[in-house]
Design a protein that fits this description.
The chain is of the alpha/beta class. It is built from 12 helices and 12 strands. The strands form 3 sheets. Strands 3-2-1-4-5-6-10 form a 7-stranded parallel β-sheet, sandwiched between helices. Strands 7-9-11 form a 3-stranded mixed β-sheet. A two-stranded parallel sheet has the order 8-12. The structure holds nicotinamide-adenine-dinucleotide and thymidine-5'-diphosphate (TYD).
Length: about 350
């Protein structure tokens, strides 16, 4: 059992669910969350566990080797769950270098520190890298991504994640650093930053604003509820084989236009609006540059070898997600108004 675990990027969407799961499920473990609190990191996401005795938050940057080294010295980590990243494809198209810095340089920095800290004894240590199915590129109408699919990233985001995956494997082969990688499909759920398709459209439906659908809305994504993703990470972290890669997904493919129609249908009912009110907000806009057509994950290895299965059907997960956003409009208004970032600037300054 690992006792001291570093989670990077634990104030983000997936990281906050992962941190909550580990802090509450493993009270005997000490969880340190290292997060830079970029626009995507929000301590409100962790309000319910912030005072837990086995949890420590540290504001910091995975690119800062000295800081990461001193954290390793202070806490003697035996596990790392590396979640910190720049994660939005559209932002990577406007600023690719930011993605190289965080996703590539930041990952290599944490890998180097872990290797140096653990080099005398790798037994019982694990560097777990959380990655994406986007590294595999784009599928046509048929087929699935397996763990053997060749990498073919096409956006600056996926290229930076592919590069970080390669470095993780390089550290395994070259230095024997104990690593595991998982590549997951699109997540959705509470605390998802409203720049991504589903929370953006929930926010816009609430506010009667247009729902921007890129191109014809024919692109397909394979959606997994975020709590199912972190339960898969938990399973792999504790039972996965060192040096292996695991694909995570729930066999749940949707065309963008269909998912938004389903969202509109459910929100009309929940907001007590006349049928088809929200669908009138659908607006087709210019396509994303290099827009990948289809992602679909084959997660057979994970289910056969480790027995993991997703817990939720999509319509149910989407309904839970909408309910959360409707009950947490303050969170949504705060992150869309940028209030929370002003607060952090005041609280932490340049620290
Ligand atoms: P997110 O953008 O919501 O959160 C990223 C977190 O990392 C934020 O809290 C941010 O403050 C922090 N961060 C960014 N740069 C940092 C730095 N230099 N130092 C320390 N912290 C930093 O991202 P997410 O959607 O939660 O994704 C988390 C991970 O999961 C990423 O590695 C992403 O590639 C991967 N992933 C995401 C999805 C998805 O659908 N969102 C699917 C598969 C894999
Ligand atoms: P997104 O949530 O950005 O995730 P990813 O690009 O990592 O898959 O986008 C999901 C899909 O929705 C993708 O095909 C792009 C599309 N999309 C829109 O049509 N409109 C939007 O405003 C956004 C943000 C995404």
């Amino acid at each position: 059992m690992k006792k001291n675990i570093l989670i990077t990027g634990g104030a983000g969407f997936i990281g906050s669910h992962l941190t909550r799961l580990f802090v509450t499920k493993y009270p005997e473990c000490h969880i340190v969350n290292l997060d830079k609190l970029t626009y995507a990191g929000n301590l409100e996401n962790l309000r319910d566990i912030e005072h837990a005795p086995n949890y420590t938050f540290v504001k910091g940057d995975i690119e800062n080797m000295e800081q990461v080294r001193s954290l390793f010295a202070q806490y003697q980590f035996d596990g790392v769950l590396h979640c910190a990243a720049e994660s939005h494809v559209d932002r990577s198209i406007s600023d690719p270098l930011a993605f190289v810095k965080t996703n590539v340089l930041g990952t290599v920095t944490v890998l180097t520190v872990a290797k140096d800290a653990w080099k005398d004894n790798f037994d019982g240590k694990l560097f777990y890298h959380i990655s994406t199915d986007e590294v595999y590129g784009s599928l046509g109408a048929e087929g699935f991504f397996t763990e053997e699919t060749s990498y073919d990233p096409r956006s600056p985001y996926s290229a930076s994640k592919a590069s970080s995956d390669h470095f993780v494997r390089a550290f395994y082969h070259t230095y024997h650093l104990p690593v595991i990688i998982s590549n997951c499909s699109n997540n959705y759920g509470p605390y998802h930053f409203p720049e991504k398709l589903i929370p953006l459209c929930i926010h816009n439906i609430i506010n009667n604003k247009p729902l921007p659908i890129y191109g014809k809305g024919e692109n397909v994504r394979d959606w997994l509820f975020v709590e199912d993703h972190v339960s898969a990470i938990d399973t792999i972290f504790h039972q996965g084989k060192i040096g292996e890669t695991y694909n995570i997904g729930g066999h749940n493919e949707w065309k963008n236009i269909d998912i938004i129609r389903e969202l509109c249908r459910q929100m009309d009912v929940k907001l007590d609006r006349e049928k088809d009110t929200s669908a009138k907000l659908i607006t087709f806009v210019k396509d994303r540059a290099g827009h990948d057509l289809r992602y679909a994950i084959d997660a057979t290895k994970l289910s056969k070898e480790l027995g993991w299965k997703p817990s939720l059907q999509f319509e149910e997960g989407l309904s839970k997600t909408i309910d959360w956003y409707l009950q947490n409009e303050d969170w949504l208004n705060d992150v869309t108004s940028g209030n929370y970032q002003k607060y952090y600037e005041k609280m932490y300054g340049d620290r």
